[in-house]
Amino acid sequence: MEVYLGVDVGSVSTKFALLNQNNELVANLYLLTEGKPIESVQCGLKEIQQQLPEGARICGVGTTGSARYLAGVILGADLVKNEITTHAVAAQFCIPEVQTVVEIGGQDSKIIIIRDGVVTDFGMNTICAAGTGSFLDHQALRLNMSISDFGERALQSKNPVRIAGRCTVFAESDMIHKQQMGHRTEDILYGLCQALVRNYLNNVALGKDIQPPVVFQGGVAFNKGIVKALQEGLDTEITVPPHHEIMGAIGAALLVHEEIVSNRSESKFQGFSVSDTQYHTSTFECRSCPNLCEIARLSMDGRVVAQWGGRCDLWERSGAAGV
């Protein structure tokens, strides 16, 4: 069996998706990055190896996410793609007629506008946490409850209260005030869901031509309170696809499958042994021009194996093996 591996390494979570030659999902994995992208990739690869169907052979590897270049070097990726492309491809694979993709993750959020199968516009929020999953995590912790219970409790709201959600600091202050006024926890929870959606629509999605069908992806789509608030905010049906939390990885697997088949090339996959390899990461400031780019460097056994991060390809061409 030929299988294709997609890996999405984000700041909060690392996702793996394994597709067969018919693009059917045969294995998947979702684990927390915990600030250790190398370790999470290595740990995830070990677990995916255990899920690998008997006789299966990995014929292509694609990476995406904020640490896509790092993961690409470690794994020997055949394709490295940005999150916009992979999420759009996965959404269209599941819902071919999709026109708007809403993706909310732990530390960032994005919107992708698709027309006639082509991405025509997108927006991202990578600075403020108020429109991301960490906003809900923080408030759930403040309320001494599990984030897994957040959505179901929010749906029990009868009279949601308005929470100032433009900033996590203001939201927490406002939430405490609402608690002191005696509002029910369920009403505060759904108020927080509405606050996140308002922040998303007023920042990430501001000025975008949002048209149905709308597909909601990312880990936050597990929260049914957010799904309902988003549906109300957009006044349209929201589709949450199966495996919505690993759509970036699925998109990477779909793309690398197409790439390998089109070029009839052999995969550069390094093999499962990389799970036990010791890597060292470092950064330095390039002074070759006034841009002063921060360059990331990956080393193994004292040898530099990859460098990236500059506005130009100076360091990628400096002799290290890149992706």
Structure, explained:
With 323 residues, this protein is α/β, with parallel strands linked by helices. It folds into 3 domains: 2-93 and 247-276, Nucleotidyltransferase, domain 5 (2-Layer Sandwich); 97-240, Nucleotidyltransferase, domain 5 (2-Layer Sandwich), CATH 3.30.420.40; 278-323, 2-Layer Sandwich (Double Stranded RNA Binding Domain). 35% of the residues lie in helices and 24% in strands. It is built from 9 helices and 13 strands. It has helices spanning 37-51, 68-75, 83-94, 133-142, 147-154, 168-180, 185-202, 224-234, 247-263, and strands spanning 2-9, 13-20, 25-32, 57-64, 79-80, 100-104, 109-115, 118-125, 214-217, 238-239, 280-285, 294-300, 303-308. The strands form 3 sheets. Strands 3-2-1-4-5 form a 5-stranded mixed sheet, sandwiched between helices. Strands 8-7-6-9-10 form a 5-stranded mixed sheet. β1 and β2 (13-20) form a beta hairpin. The longest helix is centred in the middle third of the chain and has 18 residues, at 185-202. It is globular, with a radius of gyration of 21 Å. Residues 319-323 have low confidence and may be disordered.
Task: Map the helices and strands.
Elements: E1 2-9, E2 13-20, E3 25-32, H1 37-51, E4 57-64, H2 68-75, E5 79-80, H3 83-94, E6 100-104, E7 109-115, E8 118-125, H4 133-142, H5 147-154, H6 168-180, H7 185-202, E9 214-217, H8 224-234, E10 238-239, H9 247-263, E11 280-285, E12 294-300, E13 303-308
Parallel strand pairs: 1-4, 4-5, 6-9, 9-10
Antiparallel strand pairs: 1-2, 2-3, 6-7, 7-8, 11-12, 12-13
Helix pairs in contact: 3-9, 4-6, 5-7, 6-7, 7-8
